[in-house]
Fold this sequence. Notes:
The complex is a heterodimer. By secondary structure, chain A is mostly beta strands. Helices cover about 5% and strands about 40% of the residues of chain A. Chain B is an alpha/beta fold. Chain B has one domain: Peroxisomal Thiolase, Chain A, domain 1. The chains are: A mainly beta, B alpha/beta. The interface between A and B is large, with 41 and 45 residues. Strand 1 of chain A pairs parallel with strand 7 of chain B, so a sheet runs across the interface.
Amino acid sequence: MTVESEAVLRPLPLGDEVSGAFWEAAKAGRLDIQRCRACRRWNHAPSLACPTCGSENLGYETVSGKGTLFTWCVLKEAPAPGFRDMLPLIVAIVELAEQPHLLLSTNIVGAREEELRLGMPLEVTFERVTEECALPQFRPAREAA
Amino acid sequence: MWAFRDRIAVAGIGYSPLTRRPERSLASLAVEAVDAALADAGLDRRALDGLATSPSMPRYGGAKGTVEGIDVVTPWALGERLGIHGHTRWTGSTNGMVTQAFMEAAMAIASGVCSHVVVYRALHVPPGSYINYENKYSVGPEQWLAPFGFSGPPSWAASVVKRYFEMFGYSRADFARYIVDNRANTCRNPNGFWRGKPLVADDYLNARMIADPMSILDCDIPVDGCAALLLTSTERARDLKQKPALLTGFAAGTHSAPTGVPMTLDDIWIGCEQVAARLWEATGLGPRDFDNAQLYDGFAPFVYLWLEGLGIVPRGEGLAFLRDGHGSLGGKLPVNTGGGALGEGRLHGMTQLSEAVIQVTDRGGERQVPGARRAIATISNGLTKATAFAISRDEGQ
């Protein structure tokens, strides 16, 4: 019987045909977002066809990792056992700099709840959860976005 | 305008007891609610030729509840239990909200397929928690949320409320009046789960936080139980036991939030506005034409977002409307007069529909809005699966 680390008792993402490249990039420390090769619109979560123009010609491109805080909430109770040492857990939506309403779910790290403001500049940082998985997290931007 | 405006009616309301973790099976509670709706109209099972619902259990994370009769009650199993299969002409089961089944039932009657349809919603409180992330992996849409702990609907609603508070300068204190008055409405509702348990503002301000700024008192109360509504033609309903409540029209929403994030404030506004525009088109009515509003409160903040999306107040002013008491009984537009899902119990919009029927048929007792002529009922959060209904007093006889 193996004893699993608490960190693993977080529901880790299992990439699929469409999302696999996102998680592979995160593992390599890059934030790659799906982009339509036809209309050039960014698209998240990735999909089989562009929600704007319908093209199936989609690929991934690396983004700046800059964004602003769209909204957040604070969890005082762990939503799964592996979050116990992350409380209070700040769960957030980030609006990426590349396009209005290009939204990504994440956690805010390196900031206290009281410091958070709508629209504050953020930057990506990668949390290595296991050897196979890194999550894109966001922290207050160190220089103006 | 809808061709069948005011020609379909709700003629009966039936409830099982709404409790938590009863000895009886969910199927047994559903049978009781259906029989009660028929009896309310002065009918019995022989008249029933249609049944419709959305049977699914809303569970997130680990084990899904799928056991027939315990976790869910499908119309096929319920029809068999009621012994009506010999004369049933249609059963409807939607993956959306039960209120979409209500729309389909109205269309089944309008088209002449059915004469009397019961729309019911049976919900079971599972052992443990509705939201239970015991999985090692998250897949599909959940892969974008669950790894960050963004895995439960209360946290999704909290992220909507936080943006709203930050944009307009509100805090939880502004919502206390609504919560307290809503509980007072519940205490006037014989079906209400929380009847006999009034609240004061401090109870709300000190309530346990589920996902800050959403507390346990911002969330509806999961119950075991069933509510059922009997639909028929207005013409037939006029010969039955109760005064009919007329279905003036309805609308459904098709706006989605972007995937990868849960519902957002901005998308909820757009969705509610879309549903409202469709309802005005179907009914010829507008936001000023209602004297009571039954607005979905699976998460209570949706109430003020619906007030805004329907155009009753501008964006950003819904919470002030409630803070100032305009949504309380005796206010400009009484809201959730029976206590909604927050007080009566989680019945996924049946609460809103049945209360609309109660108000326009003068059956509200201590919580009656005097002379109520027209109710609006909205269900869900304005995004895909959302519905809205205009329910009117029968003045046409």
